[in-house]
Design a protein that fits this description.
Elements: H1 2-25, H2 27-49, H3 81-117, H4 119-133, H5 137-148, H6 152-178, H7 182-189, H8 194-202, H9 207-230, H10 242-248, H11 258-285
Length: 291
């Protein structure tokens, strides 16, 4: 028994090493991972490294450009933009992680049930998914916001809801492929329960596409959440959320463009990081995708 476990652990270790070897060959993927790590670390240590309080106003520094005192300049209320971007990072990351988590759990459960049981259950799942996919993700999030009202919690719910049909489609497609394989038929033959087969055998063998899609979906959610805040439906002033900061600076693009440029760059860098990381994970977890 110990020899079997050792062999299994060794096989898993070799597989992980092989995935990492493929991943680290992709320089763009490493760049994406580095960008995300930098932003995550900045979000964790933001209260300690931000030079100013994000709400502190200096009316002698209204709309001032970059300087040694204010690295990214100051906004229309004399607040330090660098400090606001640092302290806005935790807000954006929290919205992104919670929204994708909602989409993942709900979408995975529905997609797993529909794909595994098939028949009428799958038909209902497909119809509902097609209806939701008929609406662009941002428009679907707008509809949810209109129903529950603005705010950060509402943005999380709306962004998570708009991710559900995407997860259903990914999971259902993977389950339809996996459930016809020999190891699933063997599990049924020895009397494994449907729940055990669905979770222990099918779901665990669908992990690779799920991990890839989670990473790529985070990039989309960053844009959706920032867009909702830009429209005034997400984080409310004086919150230093990046989309809200971008909205506050849109009236000063000609006289003080730095007010919008730096929050926009922060959104772009985080989105780029998730996209590059997702592409790298796709190539590493399933090298056939390169073809």
């Amino acid at each position: 028994m110990n020899e079997k476990n050792d062999a299994k652990d060794k096989g898993t270790g070799n597989q992980v090493a092989s995935i990492w070897r493929l991943f680290r060959r992709n320089k763009l993927a490493l760049l994406g991972m580095t960008l995300i790590l930098v932003i995550v670390l900045a979000a964790i240590f933001a209260p300690y490294i931000a030079p100013y309080d994000p709400s502190q106003q200096d009316f002698q520094m209204l709309r001032k450009p970059m300087s040694a005192k204010h690295w990214f300049g100051s906004d229309q209320m004399g607040r330090d933009i660098f400090s606001r971007i640092l302290l806005g990072a935790p807000i954006t990351l929290r919205i992104t992680v919670f929204a994708v988590t909602i989409g993942f759990f709900v979408g995975t459960l529905i997609g797993l049930i529909g794909g595994y049981y098939g028949g009428m259950v799958d038909m209902v799942v497909v119809y509902l998914t097609d209806i939701l996919l008929a609406f662009p993700g941002f428009l679907l999030a707008l509809a949810v916001i209109a129903a529950i009202g603005p705010g950060i919690t509402s943005v999380i719910i709306a962004s998570g809801f708009s991710s559900i049909p995407q997860f259903i489609r990914i999971i259902r497609g993977s389950v339809l492929v996996e459930k016809e394989k020999d190891y699933v038929l063997a599990a049924r033959a020895i009397g494994e329960s449907n729940t055990s087969i669905a979770i222990r055998y099918i779901f665990l063998n669908c992990i690779a596409p799920i991990i890839i899609f989670v990473t790529l979906r985070m990039a989309v959610v960053v844009l959706i959440a920032s867009g909702l805040s830009f429209l005034g439906l997400g984080a409310q002033p004086p919150s230093p959320e990046w989309g809200a900061m971008l909205s506050e600076g849109k009236g000063y693009l000609q006289t003080a463009p730095h007010i919008s440029i730096f929050p926009g760059l922060a959104i772009m860098i985080l989105t780029l990081g998730f996209n590059l990381l997702g592409d790298g994970l796709r190539d590493a977890l399933d090298p056939r995708m390169k073809i």
